[in-house]
Structures are given as structure tokens and as C-alpha cells.
Amino acid sequence: MTIEQQLGRLRRPAPPAVQPTVELGTGLVPGFSVYEAPVGEVAVVFTPRGVRSVRLVEELDPQAIEAKPPRAWGDRIRRALEEGRPGNLPLDLEGVTPFRRKVLDQAATIPKGEVRSYGWLASHVGKPGASRAVGSAMATNPVPLIIPCHRVVRSDGRIGAYSLGGPENKWKLLRYEGADPERLEELAAAGVRFVGSDTTGIFCVPSCRHARRITPEHRLTLGSLDDARRAGLRPCQICEPVG
Amino acid sequence: MDELCRRLAADLDAAFPDLVDALASDVYSGLRRLAGADEAQDLTQETFIRAYRALSQYEAERIRSLRLRGWVWTIALNLGRNHARDRARRPTPVELEDRFGVEDPEPADEAAWDRRLRSLPPIQRRAVVLRHVVGLGYDEIAEATGRPVATVRSDVHRGLERLRTALEGES
After folding, report:
1. Does B24 contact A at CB distance below 8 Å?
2. Cβ contacts of A3 on chain B, cutoff 8 Å
3. Are A19 and B49 in contact (CB < 8 Å)?
4. Is A10 close to B128, i.e. CB distance below 8 A?
């Protein structure tokens, strides 16, 4: 055999891990990793650019490859899941329209353990009356838990629907965060939209942490913004209640 | 390869896995000889990730006119060089020499061939590996290394001469 032939026999097939590693590293195929959350195990799907979606494990995109997220992210995924907001975790939300992105970013500002309505969200993205559009932005939220759409409730105050495995998971999450969904549902059923204080002269959405400090004897329950206005109350600057 | 270029230009994401499939063993085989078995897989992966990033910045026309194998090797050789520089800045374990000597000069005996290849001047070694292990044409090696075709031809020729002398010395 010639030297040339012998050198030719040094050729080796690439290890099988090369193709999937390249597809992950370029973002052509998403990676996923499984995390424990209050709703059970969830799969967090990501590309090198950021987290792309959060899914129940059984609803995972079959194309995704199990992988470790980029080391540079540290424990940001775990923290985002625990806090229910992205923090400094990068998101890869390509394909989400600018309006929906704005709604998602606004939803991410709702504090843990509190809820806001679709109407509140619509007003705060500058589209009062667009509750339905806001509702579909929540229903198609690619990153539930991280963008806390479980903290967005119906405009009448009822807990409402949830995309990640149905409404019982929304209740579970709110209970886990200490938001007391049973009480919120009762208030909604009684037509209470806001609560106010006759000592501070301020009114809030019922789950606002300031509303929860009002003692029963000074507590005013309100069915509408007009009720609040008639009672001479001004809106809380923290929860910014709107119709 | 021209057909692949056309498909990459038309739909990079759809065609890119085929580029990896077509060239991964080329790149891996060459890097295994040039950078070592431990690093070859990592460097192969990095080569394609960088190739993808570069292609996603290129105009379709530029992608269509690429000579793919030579171009991918430009990236691979660059990485290999940087890698060697990194290695130079940190302690590395002494490579295990082939303890079985040269009793069995079979082509499958990678360690023996690596030792012979390592005894070549780096430019000849690179040219010999790209020509005869990877199977690149002289023009592709010229593109990947930035050396004129005639010079590449003589790099390969002189490398082979040295290997022949080394083999004769062993027998």
C-alpha cells in the first residue's frame, strides 16, 4: 500500500454528537431541560439566543434535544421560574408580534402573589378596550411561568382560563404565591372590583399588597371606578387600578 | 457542492444540516490529525457553528459562489491556530507516546502515524493531512491556507518525501 493510501485510511467518521451539538449551537434545533415547578415538571426550551418556550413535558416539541442551557446563564432559568418573571434571563421570542410582546412585558411587571385583569393590561399597554386581544396574547404566551400570565385574570375579577394545563394550574400557582384565589373569586362573584380605605383615601385592585393591609373597619368595597370616584378616593400608585 | 451552495443560498436553515452531514467527517478527520483526538470533536463543532454564523450574514450571491470545502477549512484552520495559541498559555499533560513501538506499521495504527506526521514541519504536515487524509484538491488547500496552488503542491510533495524517508528508517 502506498503512503497516500495509508494516509487515506486515517479518515474517521465524525462522532455522532457533532451534528446535534452543531444544530443546538446554531439554534437550528432547540434544546430543552426539565425543571420542577409548582405545576409539576416543565420543559424549558431554549436556543443560544434565549428561552423560547415553557411546556408541560408531555406537550414538548418532539424535535427538541435534551441539553444543558448555556453556562453563562447560570441559574437564571431556575430563578425566573421561582420568581415568575424573566429577570436577566434572555428570551428568544421570535415570531411574537410587537403588540403581543408589549403585553407580555407588561404582564411581567405584575408582582408575585398579585393579579391584574385583562382590562388593566390593555390600559397599561395603551389600548384600553383591547381586553380580547390581550386575552389572546396571554393564551398564546410561549413562556408561561416565566412571563406570569397566571397573574392575569378576567376583567370581572374571576380567575379565568390558563394555557399551561388548564385553570386548575392557575389556581395552584396563585395559591403557591399566596394570592388566595378562592377569596379573589368570592370578591368577583360579589361584584367587588376594587377595595379602598377611608383612612388613606386610596383605592386598589383587591390583590394589591397595599389593599391587603387595610383593616376590616376601614375597608370599602367598590363595584366600579365610579363608586371609587363617588367615595372621593384616588387610585393607588402601585397597582394603578383602571376600569 | 455547487448544488449544496444553491440550496444554502435559497434556505440556509433548511440546507445547513446537509452541509454538516457532508463535511463533518472531513473536518473531524483532518482536525484529529492536526489538533489531536481530544480536541477534534470540539473544534469540529465550533467550525460549523461559526460557519453558520458567517453564512447567515452573507448575501445569497456570495453563498452561491463559495467554494465550500476550502471555505469551511479556512474556518477550521483558524480555530486550530487559536486553539494552539491557547494551549501554549496553559500547562498540558504530556502526551502518551505509543508504547507498542512500530512493530505493527498498519495504517490503523494511528499513534504511529501521528508521530510521523508530527515530525513534519507544520506547513507540510497541514498540506499532507488536507490532501491525503481529508482528500481536498490542491486548489481547495490553497484557498483554505492562502498559499498559491504551486506552493501547496510542493508542500505536499516534500511532506510525503519526508514521510517516506521516516518509514524507511523504521524498517
Report:
1. yes
2. 132, 160, 163-164, 167
3. no
4. no
Q: Annotate B109-143 with DSSP letters as a single string.
A: -HHHHHHHHHTS-HHHHHHHIIIIII---HHHHHH
Q: Are B110 and B157 in contact (CB under 8 A)?
A: no
* B17 lies in the same domain as B82: yes
Same domain, B65 and B123: no
A contact test, residue of B43, B45, B72, B163 with most A CBs within 10 A: B45
Question: Nearest by CB to A22, which of B13, B45, B110?
Answer: B45
CATH code for the domain in which residue B139 is found? 1.10.10.10
Asked whether residue B35 falls in the same domain as residue B112, the answer is no
The answer for B 126-155 residues in CB contact with A (under 8 A) is 128-129, 132-135
Cα–Cα distances (Å) from B129 to A11, A89, A221, B57, B105, in that order, read: 10, 44, 82, 30, 18
Range of the domain at B70: 1-92
**The total number of structural domains that make up chain B:** 2
- A149 is an active site residue: yes
* Residue B21 in contact with partner chain A when CB distance is under 8 A: yes
Residue B19 lies in a domain: yes
Tens-place pLDDT, residues A51-96 = 999 999 999 988 888 888 888 898 999 999 999 999 999 999 988 9
Q: Is residue B31 part of a domain?
A: yes
The verdict on ipTM greater than 0.90 is no
Provide the shortest C-alpha distance from residue A139 to chain B (in Å): 29
Between CA A156 and CA A193 the distance in angstroms is: 7
Q: What is the pLDDT of residues B23-74, one digit of tens each?
A: 999 999 999 999 988 889 889 999 999 999 999 999 999 999 999 999 999 9
Q: Could you tell me if residue B171 is inside a domain? A: yes
Crossing angle, helix A131-139 and helix A98-107, to 10 degrees?
80
- Does residue B60 belong to any structural domain of this protein? yes
A85: which DSSP letter?
A: S
Q: How far is A20 from chain B (nearest CA, A)?
A: 9
